[in-house]
Each structure stands twice: as structure tokens, then as C-alpha cells.
Specification:
Radius of gyration: 18 Å
Distance between the termini: 25 Å
Structural class: mainly alpha
Oligomer: single chain
Order of helices and strands: HHHHHH
Number of strands: 0
Strand content: under 5%
Largest sheet: none
Number of helices: 6
Shape: globular
Length: 205
């Protein structure tokens, strides 16, 4: 399967996850679901731009990947804001909903992660797409845990803590993408540190 098709399928899965998460996240004011919405929204932008630049030169992919990292960080901060709201104004959580949405999201995101993992070594564009899908899978597993602990305790504290962990993880991985895109960029074709030396004739830069 081509890089573009892999990215397109991952993009569709991500949009479906956003639709489900935003409805139930807002209804229950769930920190973990809202954090996942913020995460998935950034990822939808990242996957969409990855599709657009899949055939572009290295310098374009590196610049776009740096922008992706910045967008990921912004959505991580938005998630922290919703966690603050949950702490101060409470949540209306439902065990069945949290578990159902979490399992649905986990299955979809694992498929997207498997698809993009097969291509993640191609370049920073595909790697950033894989990082998004991997992060989504981890976040979805966190939602399942949130539902399970809410069922055990009846408290929204696990939801807040897991939401905070997801938001922190989003911010951390965004710095990794920014670092690799700006400070240690590599040419897609010849693996030279970007930009390629004058003796290199790969033509990708």
C-alpha cells in the first residue's frame, strides 16, 4: 500500500475518533475524552498535511513536520485547560460510555498505528504520522483505564489524572518531532544531515 493510501486511511480513522470523543466528552465533561479530542484534532491536521506533502522535497517535509509538532503542543495545552475545568467544575461520567468509547477508539487507533508503522522509517513525514497514531492508541488505552477505575471508585480523579498524563505525553512527543524536524533533520533520499552537502546529487533537497 502506498504512503498516501496509508495516510488517508489513518486520517479517516482519526476523524471518526474525533466525532465520537467530542460528543461524549462534552456531554460528560470527561478530562480523558476531552484530552483525546484535543490530541486527535491536532493529529487530524498532522495526517492531513502529511497527505499533502507525501511527494514533496525534504526541506518541505521537515518544515511541515516542525509545524505539526507546534500544533501538537498547542492542543496539549488546550487539553490541560479542560482538565482544569474538570477539577473546578466536576464531571458527569458514565462507566459504560467511557469504556465503550475507549474500546472503540483503541481498536481504530491500533489499526492506524499498524498501518503507519510499516512506513514510519521512510522519512520524517511518515514518522510524525506514526507517532500520532501511536499516541492515539496510548490515549485510547488511557480512556479504557479511566472507565475501569471510575467503575471501581466512583471518583473522577482517575479520569483527571489519565487526562493529564495524555496531555503531558502529547506535549512531550511534540517536542520530539520539533527537535528532529528543526535541529537534526535528515534527507529522505541519501540520509545525509539536512541540507545535503554540495557533493550530494540526490536531488531531494
Amino acid at each position: 500500500m502506498s504512503d498516501k493510501k496509508v495516510l488517508f486511511f489513518a486520517f479517516l480513522i482519526n476523524i471518526a475518533m474525533i466525532f465520537v470523543d467530542v460528543i461524549y466528552g462534552l456531554i460528560m465533561n470527561s478530562s480523558s475524552l476531552i484530552a483525546d479530542v484535543a490530541h486527535n484534532s491536532g493529529d487530524a491536521f498532522i495526517l492531513g498535511t502529511s497527505i499533502l506533502v507525501v511527494s514533496s522535497k525534504s526541506y518541505i517535509k521537515n518544515n511541515v513536520s516542525a509545524l505539526k509538532g507546534i500544533i501538537m503542543f498547542i492542543f496539549g495545552i488546550i487539553a490541560f485547560y479542560h482538565i482544569y475545568k474538570a477539577i473546578n467544575f466536576g464531571s458527569q461520567l458514565h462507566t459504560e460510555t467511557l469504556l465503550g468509547v475507549g474500546i472503540f477508539s483503541l481498536l481504530g487507533n491500533v489499526v492506524a498505528a499498524i498501518l503507519t508503522h510499516s512506513k514510519h522509517h521512510h522519512d520524517i513525514n511518515m514518522k510524525s504520522a506514526y507517532v500520532c497514531a501511536r499516541n492515539d492508541s496510548i490515549a485510547s488505552a488511557g480512556i479504557v483505564l479511566s472507565g475501569f477505575f471510575f467503575w471501581l471508585t466512583g471518583s473522577n480523579l482517575p479520569d483527571i489524572l489519565i487526562g493529564a498524563a495524555i496531555a503531558f505525553f502529547v506535549c512531550y512527543t511534540s517536542f520530539e518531532i520539533i527537535k528532529e524536524s528543526i535541529f537534526t533533520p535528515v534527507c529522505n533520499c541519501c540520509n545525509h544531515n539536512f541540507p545535503c552537502p554540495e557533493t550530494c546529487k540526490c536531488g531531494c533537497c
